[in-house]
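Retro notes (design track)

What went well: tokenization of the new backbones is finally stable.
What didn't: we kept losing track of which sequence belonged to which structure.
Fix going forward: every design gets posted as structure first, then sequence, in one message. First example under the new rule, 306 residues:
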């Protein structure tokens, strides 16, 4: 089978070598499409692909229409909002993710961003410490739990909100459960966002929630830019000179925010949370194994469009 490894943001060379070793060892061929310039390059490359491994690459209905042989897409990572699941299902294409495989890298970045903002973006201005501050983790899944664990080691108090977990599950994973998003924002010095982009979450974090944060509050977004209501964020930062926003998913209005609020905002130039050699290897190799298993045994573990 032909496996297209389509990564606009390429994996580390070691991850690519590992993917090839697994796939070729099982008799498959790997074709690389890295750093492609336009979506039309992806559309052209899928023409004879039986399987695909992607990252945040956009698998739209147009891509699926152009891929008559395609049977499986594995998103090497957690979030699959970049895949048109309905179109994939209509084409009979199985879509999987690789949950947990890149979580540590994202969690480490979230912590780094908290320190970066606490220390005024590594300028000599007087900063603050994380010790004794309360961190609210919005969604206590694979990444959220690791953020909580690492923040606890730095002496922070941890609260978590997760509608899919019981209080007992949250407590046994080291956080104090809170029961509403309003409570989470009102009581947390730092909020770290780990929710997916869904119709119900898009634009859900705006002026009302952000301005509930205590004095000096810092909002950390390593999840998706779409979950923020950007106009609401701007209004909150304007009204509350003590609030800060740091993100790995650059807002559309970043230039304006930076111009208006300076060191109170920061966005990485390109999403880099999962961009470590370890995360690339973990997620990439897991994706290759899932494809090999799918063709060998029909295994659909981790399918997200059931
Ligand atoms: C994910 O959903 O796994 C992360 O956002 C990482 O995305 P990336 O593979 O595009 O870096």
């Amino acid at each position: 089978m032909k496996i297209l490894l389509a990564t606009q943001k390429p994996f580390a060379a070691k991850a690519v070598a590992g993917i090839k070793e697994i796939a070729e060892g099982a008799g498959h061929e790997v074709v690389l499409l890295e750093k492609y310039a336009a979506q039309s390059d992806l559309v052209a490359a899928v023409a004879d692909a039986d399987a695909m491994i992607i990252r945040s690459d956009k698998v739209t209905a147009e891509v699926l229409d152009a891929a008559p042989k395609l049977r499986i897409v594995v998103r090497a990572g957690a979030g699959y909002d970049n895949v048109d699941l309905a179109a994939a299902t209509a084409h009979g294409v199985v879509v999987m993710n690789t949950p947990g495989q890149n979580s540590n890298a994202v969690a480490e970045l979230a912590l780094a961003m908290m320190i970066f903002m606490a220390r005024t973006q590594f300028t000599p201005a007087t900063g603050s410490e994380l010790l004794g501050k309360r961190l609210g983790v919005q969604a206590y899944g694979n990444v959220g739990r690791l953020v909580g664990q690492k923040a606890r080691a730095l002496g922070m108090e941890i609260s978590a909100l997760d509608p899919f977990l019981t209080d007992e599950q949250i407590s046994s994973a080291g956080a104090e459960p809170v029961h509403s998003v309003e409570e989470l924002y009102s009581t947390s010095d730092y909020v770290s966002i780990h929710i997916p982009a869904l119709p119900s979450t898009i634009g859900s974090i705006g002026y009302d929630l952000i301005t509930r944060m205590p004095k000096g509050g810092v909002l950390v977004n390593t999840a998706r830019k779409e979950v923020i209501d950007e106009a609401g964020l701007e209004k909150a930062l304007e009204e509350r000179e003590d609030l800060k926003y740091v993100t790995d998913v650059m807002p559309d209005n970043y230039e304006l925010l930076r111009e208006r609020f300076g060191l109170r905002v920061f966005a990485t130039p390109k999403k880099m949370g999962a961009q470590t050699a370890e995360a690339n290897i973990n997620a990439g190799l897991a994706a290759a194994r899932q494809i090999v298993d799918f063709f060998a045994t029909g295994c659909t573990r981790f399918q997200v469009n059931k």
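Added context from the reviewer: The pocket of 3-phosphoglyceric acid is lined by residues 9, 55-56, 77-79, 102, 271, 273-275 (CB under 6 Å).
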